[in-house]
Amino acid sequence: MEMTIQKLAQLSGVSTRTLRYYDDIGLLKPARVNSSGYRIYGQEEIDMLQQILFYRELGFKLEVIKEMVTAEDFDYKNALMEHYKALIEKRQQLNVMITTVTKTINAMSGGIQMSNEEKFEGLKEKMIMDNEKQYGREIRRNYGDTTVDASNKKVKHMTEQQYEEVQALEKEVMNLLKQAMQTGRADSAVAQRAAETHKRWLMYYWPKYSKEAHAGLAEMYIADARFTSYYDKEQTGTAQLLRDAILIYTKMNN
């Protein structure tokens, strides 16, 4: 089966402008261009567009999608199985969120009593869902499904107090880094406090701690632009400082 860009746009719901952009960036090339200059797409391109839209729906950025679908070992069937698993997990997480919101509304209306633990179930699920969407692929690739699943389970069982503590620690890390950036020295006392606080923050998520894993995560803060942009959102170089401070803290800087 072959179709023009207009027909593919109509079939998929994606604009022709978007399809042209996908062509320009090398994400989805047409099968050929006919003598009139029109892009022509075959079944292989139609199937690939479906994959791209699945990944988009799951929150992946285009550059990440391109890296995945253009890889030599990309497997269409396995990708569909991954999509299926991710969608089931997303549905379960959304169901928890919906249940939490419904219970909260009923509790506010005087219909039911709601424990503090129940109030935070949805927020913890959202935390997991957001983290999986933004960093899941890289974290699972580096640490494995077993470790990440154990971490998610640990988050789900956080008490209200633990949830508040982890939020406070995250803010404390950022505040310490802001102070450390005044000198830019990773070996300063305040930078080392930031690294130590970062470890305490991690322990709310990780099943167990190792200095090697901590240092490895720090390297990801530099290697992955998404991590870098999170720490550099107020001042460029903050992620680098944190990485260097953690390497010193874990004695892995040699």
List keywords for this structure.
single chain; 254 residues; mainly alpha; Multidrug-efflux Transporter Regulator, Chain: A, Domain 2; Globin-like; 3 domains; 3 strands
What does this protein look like?
The chain has 254 residues and is mainly alpha-helical. It folds into 3 domains: 3-69, Orthogonal Bundle (Multidrug-efflux Transporter Regulator, Chain: A, Domain 2); 76-155, no CATH class; 159-249, Globin-like, CATH 1.10.490.50. The protein contains 12 helices and 3 strands, in the order βααββαααααααααα. The chain has helices at 5-12, 16-24, 43-57, 62-69, 76-108, 116-143, 145-156, 160-180, 189-202, 211-223, 225-231, 238-249; strands spanning 3-4, 32-33, 39-41. Strands 1-3-2 form a 3-stranded antiparallel β-sheet. Strand 2 (32-33) and strand 3 (39-41) form a beta hairpin. Helix 6 (116-143) packs antiparallel against helix 7 and helix 9 crosses helix 12 (238-249). The chain is globular, with a radius of gyration of 23 Å. The N and C termini lie far apart (58 Å). The model has no long low-confidence stretch (mean pLDDT 83).
What is the CATH C-level name of the largest domain? Mainly Alpha
Proportion of residues in β-strands:
under 5%
Rg from Cα: 23 Å
Instruction: State the separation between the terminal residues, measured CA to CA.
Output: 58 Å
Shape: globular
- The number of distinct β-strands equals 3
- Secondary structural class: mainly alpha
- How much helix is in the residues? over 70%
Major β-sheet profile? 3 strands, antiparallel
Strand order of the largest sheet: 1-3-2
Helices and strands, in order, run as EHHEEHHHHHHHHHH
> What low-confidence regions span 5 or more consecutive residues with pLDDT below 50?
none
- Would you tell me the overall average pLDDT? 83
CATH superfamily label of the largest domain: Antibiotic binding domain of TipA-like multidrug resistance regulators
Just name the CATH architecture of the largest domain: Orthogonal Bundle
CATH topology-level name of the largest domain: Globin-like
Number of domains: 3
SS summary, helix count: 12
